[in-house]
Amino acid sequence: MKGIWLENQQLQFRPNLPEPEPAPGEALIKVIRAGICNTDLELLRGYYPYRGVLGHEFVGIVEKGPNELLGKRVVGEINVACGDCHFCRTDQPTHCENRTVLGIVNHNGVFADYIALPIANLHPVPEALPTDTAVFTEPVAAALEIQQQVHITPNDHVLVVGDGKLGLLIAQTLALTGCELLVAGRHPEKLAILKHQGITTTLADTVTARSFDLAVECTGNPAGFELARQALRARGTLVLKSTYADNLNINASALVVDEITVIGSRCGPFDKALTVLATGQIEVEPLIQGRYRLEQGIEAFDHAQKRGTLKILFEN
Amino acid sequence: MKGIWLENQQLQFRPNLPEPEPAPGEALIKVIRAGICNTDLELLRGYYPYRGVLGHEFVGIVEKGPNELLGKRVVGEINVACGDCHFCRTDQPTHCENRTVLGIVNHNGVFADYIALPIANLHPVPEALPTDTAVFTEPVAAALEIQQQVHITPNDHVLVVGDGKLGLLIAQTLALTGCELLVAGRHPEKLAILKHQGITTTLADTVTARSFDLAVECTGNPAGFELARQALRARGTLVLKSTYADNLNINASALVVDEITVIGSRCGPFDKALTVLATGQIEVEPLIQGRYRLEQGIEAFDHAQKRGTLKILFEN
C-alpha cells in the first residue's frame, strides 16, 4: 500500500508499504480522508523520535471487522490501550502506561491506504455527517477536553491565544459554554472565520493584562504562553493545548505569587465531538485549505508548514 | 528605632529609623520575635526590587490599638488589602489588586523594633503557645494553603521535594491529611527531624518516577521542579511553593502529554495555622538554628544564607 513515512525527521512517500494485519479485536480500515495536525509538524521537527507512517486524524471505511461496522465510515481514537494498567482500570485509557499512539508512538498512522485499530477505538460516523466534517473529530475531541478538565461558567472571562487550526476549533467549542470569550490572534483573515460566527476577536497585542479567569494557549510558542499568563488575573487558569518542540522558559514566581493554575490538556471525548459536529454547533469546513493525494505527501506537508496555513487534508 | 534595611540588594542595620505612625484602623506593634524566610533571601538576590525594612514573619505585642488587644501577643497577616477591589469584595484579600505586603511590597517589615499593621490583619496568640512556636504561624499558614487548593485524600501518594525550612513545615502539614507521604531531600540531618515524627523520607535521587498523584516543589530550583514533575504520574498535580529568582526552563510538552496540573501556592489561613500549632499537631522548634539581635542583622543573614540552614530568628 501507499503511505507517508517519517524516519530521522525525514518524510518519504513509500508506494509499497506492507498492508497492516489486524490482530484479534482489531479492524482493518481503508482510510478515505486524513488531516495534517500540528503534532505531525512537530514530529517532523523532532519533538518525539517517531519512526513510521505519520498521521492520526482520519475517517475510514471498515473492510475487515465486526459485521455491524463492515462498509461503514468510522473515526478512531488514537490511543491504543493495554486494558490492564492503573489508567485503563480507572477508565482513563488515553493515559494507558503501555499505550501506542496512532502515528505518534509505536503505531503506524493514517497517511496510508490502510490502518489496523482496535474495534474498541472506533466510532461510527453518523450518516448525515460529511466526511470532510467528520475528519475533524479528533481535534474537536481534544478541544472539548478543556471542558472535561475545567468548570467554565457563563460568568467566566475566557481568552483563547492563537488563531491556528486548533485555536479556531477551541474558540468554537468554548463558545458553547456561554462564557465571555475573546480570541486573540495575529491573522485578521483567520479571525474573520470566528467573527462570522459571532465570536469576539482581537489582535494579540491589544489584550488587557490581568483580566481573564481562563486563558487557553494554542500557539505552542513562548510568546503565546507569556501573553496567556499575563492576561490572567490572580487565581486564574492557563490551559496548555499545544506541544512544544523546545523547552519553555517561564516566570514561575509569577505563577506562585498569583496562584495561577496551569493545566496540560490532550485527547478528549470522541462521542461528544461527533455530537457537536453532527448537530452543526461548530463549523469546521472553512478551515480546509488544501487537498492532496498520498502521492503528493511532500507537497502537502510543504503547504501545511507554510506560516498561517489551516487544515490540509489527504483524500484517498 | 532599630531596623534592618534593604536597598539596591544591600542590607544595612539602621539604628535611627523613624517609628511607624499607625493610620486609622491600624495598631502599633512592638516586634518581639521574627523569622528569616526564603523570600527575604530572594529579595536580597533581587527577585523583586524592594526597598525598606525587611521581614514578614513575626510575633509582637500591641502597644497602640483596640483595648482587647493592648499588651497582647499577636501575629499578623502580611497582605495589607484595600477592601475595595474585586478580590477584597470576594473574600480573597491575599490577592488584593492594590495590596502592600509586609516587608515585601511597599510596606516596611518586621526586622525592626516596631511595625504598624491594620487591626484586621492581627490574630491574638493563644496564651499557652510559646513565642518561638507562634513565630512560625505565617509559614505554617502558607503550608496549609496547599490543602485549601487541592483536595488530598488518604489514598493519594504525595511527594514533598526539598528539606529546607518550608519543606519541613509542608511535610508536617501534609502528614495531617493521612496521605501516603514521602519527603525527598539532600540533607540526612534535616530529614531526621521528620523521621523522628514518623514521616517517611528518602534521598532525592532515589525517587521513583511516575508514581505520585501530588508533588510539592519546595526547593525553588530547576532540579527540584524537574524531580517533582518526573515523579508524577499522568494527571498528577505539581504544587509550586517557592519563588524563583530566575525564570524556570520547563518541558511544557510533558505537561500537555501527561495532562499535569501545576498550581502556584502562596499565603494561607492564619487561624488554621494557629490551631495546628496550638494543638501540637506539628513540631517547629527543632527548625530553629540561630538567634540574633537586630544589631547583628548582617551576621544573622550570613548565617541564614549558609547552605542547609533552617530557621534563623531575631529576638527583641
Structural description of this entry:
Two copies of one chain form a homodimer. Chain A has 316 residues and is of the alpha/beta class. Chain A folds into two domains: 3-136 and 284-315, Medium-chain alcohol dehydrogenases, catalytic domain (Quinone Oxidoreductase, Chain A, domain 1), CATH 3.90.180.10; 142-264, Rossmann fold (3-Layer(aba) Sandwich). Chain A has helices spanning 38-44, 86-89, 131-134, 137-149, 165-175, 188-195, 222-231, 252-257, 270-278, 297-305; strands at 3-7, 10-14, 26-35, 52-53, 57-64, 73-76, 79-80, 100-101, 114-118, 122-124, 157-161, 180-185, 201-203, 212-217, 232-240, 248-250, 261-264, 288-292, 311-315. In chain A, the strands form four sheets. In chain A, strands 3, 5, 6, 9, 10, 18 and 19 form a seven-stranded mixed sheet that branches. In chain A, strands 13-12-11-14-15-17 form a six-stranded parallel sheet, with helices on both faces. Chain A is globular and about 55 Å long. Chain A starts with a strand and ends with a strand. The mean pLDDT of chain A is 96. Chains A and B meet through strand 15, strand 16, helix 8 and strand 17 of A and strand 15, strand 16, helix 8 and strand 17 of B.
Helices and strands, with pairings:
The structure is a homodimer of 316-residue chains.
Chain A: E1 3-7, E2 10-14, E3 26-35, H1 38-44, E4 52-53, E5 57-64, E6 73-76, E7 79-80, H2 86-89, E8 100-101, E9 114-118, E10 122-124, H3 131-134, H4 137-149, E11 157-161, H5 165-175, E12 180-185, H6 188-195, E13 201-203, E14 212-217, H7 222-231, E15 232-240, E16 248-250, H8 252-257, E17 261-264, H9 270-278, E18 288-292, H10 297-305, E19 311-315
Parallel strand pairs in A: 11-12, 11-14, 12-13, 14-15, 15-17, 18-19
Antiparallel strand pairs in A: 1-2, 1-4, 3-5, 3-9, 3-19, 5-6, 6-10, 7-8
